[in-house]
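Sequence only, no structure available. Ideas?
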Amino acid sequence: MDTSNYSVRDLGLAAALVSAGYTIANTEHEPSGRVYFVFTPSDLLTETINLYWSNQLTVLARTYNDNIKMLKNRIYARP
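Reply:
I predicted one. Tokens follow.
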């Protein structure tokens, strides 16, 4: 994986980041079947991730749900 990017394997976190307005730079599929969602790192991204893990990030529920579905489609769509 590219260390100049921030890779996320957690589907909930990835959906929260997309719902908060971040764009997925890439999707990396490993031979093992694991999928990583790649974001461009920034201080604001780190702050948003911290808000997510501290249960303080607020996103729209329907947007979050739609993004979960979209990310699942990306997981199962092989490159």
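The first helix runs from residue 11 to 19.
Hope that gets you unstuck.
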